[in-house]
């Protein structure tokens, strides 16, 4: 099997990376950064997001796993202490694949009407440096509301525990093919009105944001942000692609939520 490692680059992560390569090559696995079947991220959730975007062009052939070298991560959920156990599992055991939904965003601009398509593992956020954002929001081709406020966050189920959670969004189990639209500080008064609640859209439903007064947007997908000029529309839906996690031990989503936000395991 061919594998690759994406490291955060700090000393601890680098040392761990070198050990993993030596161990796995000792078991005759091949280190291949171009066409890995297994991508191991070593660092934190940010490193895992980086690994996902580095191999986003070959999701159907790649499985991901995360080791954390800082505090417990949501994606990076193996500890350095478990390294030997994990390496033996990787070398000897066929892994189980767990597939979770992704977000597709298509940004159409004047001069690029077909649009740029991006995928996100956690979320896309749409803000502007021009004061409030104003959008007409259509759902499945029908006008739903005009949004005014700081911005919108559109998240995946696995991303529902990230930025979305800080905005008061719901935590969604990733077995549900859905995306969630969460408001960032909407303006609500006698003149302007938005729904005020997060919206959860199933597969095949499309949410389209059409700019009112702004022309330039700061659009973040996961950990990186770009500026887009002359935006005509931003379409959001559940992507047809999925992320594939390599699973070597049972760790339920709710357990991970509990361990990350409520209390450490009572085992
Ligand atoms: P970062 O270093 O600012 O880390 C943000 C935190 O989010 C880290 O503690 C990370 O472990 C955690 N995180 C990332 N994905 C998560 C997930 N799916 N569930 C639970 N926690 C998660 O930035 P980074 O490490 O590059 O991560 C980028 C992510 O940061 C973005 O995708 C966004 O979700 C999140 N973020 C959160 C807020 C907020 O909560 N107010 C604000 C901006 C960005």
UniProtKB/TrEMBL annotation:
Keyword annotations: ATP-binding, Cytoplasm, Kinase, NAD, NADP, Nucleotide-binding, Transferase
Domain of life of the native organism: Bacteria
EC numbers for this chain: 2.7.1.23
List of residues binding NAD(+): 45-46, 122-123, 148, 150, 185
Active site annotation, chain numbering: 45 (proton acceptor)
Cofactor names: a divalent metal cation
Gene Ontology CC annotations of this record: cytoplasm
Keyword NAD: yes
Gene Ontology biological process terms, A to Z: NAD+ metabolic process; NADP+ biosynthetic process
Transmembrane segments: none
InterPro entries in the record: ATP-NAD_kinase_N (IPR017438), ATP-NAD_kinase_PpnK-typ_C (IPR017437), NAD/diacylglycerol_kinase_sf (IPR016064), NADK (IPR002504)
Single annotated GO MF: NAD binding
Catalytic activity: NAD(+) + ATP = ADP + NADP(+) + H(+)
Enzyme class, first EC level, given as a word: transferase
Family according to the record: Belongs to the NAD kinase family.
Protein name stated in the entry: NAD kinase
């Amino acid at each position: 099997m061919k594998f690759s490692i994406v490291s955060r680059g700090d000393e601890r992560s680098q040392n761990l990376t070198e050990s993993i390569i030596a161990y796995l090559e000792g078991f005759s696995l091949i280190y291949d950064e171009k066409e890995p079947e297994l991508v191991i991220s070593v660092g934190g959730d940010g490193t895992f997001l980086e690994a996902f975007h580095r191999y986003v062009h070959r999701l159907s052939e790649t499985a991901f796993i995360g080791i954390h070298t800082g505090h417990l991560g949501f994606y990076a959920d193996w500890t350095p202490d478990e390294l030997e156990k994990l390496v033996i599992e990787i070398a000897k055991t066929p892994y189980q694949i767990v597939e979770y939904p992704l977000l597709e965003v298509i940004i159409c601009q004047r001069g690029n009407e077909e649009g740029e398509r991006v995928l996100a593992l956690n979320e896309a956020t749409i803000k502007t440096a021009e004061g409030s954002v104003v959008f007409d929001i259509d759902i499945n081709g029908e006008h739903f509301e005009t949004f005014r406020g700081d911005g919108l966050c559109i998240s995946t189920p696995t991303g529902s525990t990230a930025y979305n959670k800080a905005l008061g969004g719901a935590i969604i189990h990733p077995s549900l093919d859905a995306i969630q639209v969460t408001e960032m500080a909407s303006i609500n008064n006698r003149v302007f009105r938005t729904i005020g609640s997060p919206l959860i859209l199933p597969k095949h439903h499309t949410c389209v944001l059409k700019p009112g007064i702004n022309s330039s947007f700061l659009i973040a997908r996961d950990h990186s942000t770009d500026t887009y000029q002359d935006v005509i529309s931003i379409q959001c839906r559940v992507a047809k692609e999925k992320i594939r996690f390599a699973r070597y031990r049972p760790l339920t989503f709710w357990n991970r939520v509990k361990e990350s936000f409520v209390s450490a395991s009572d085992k």
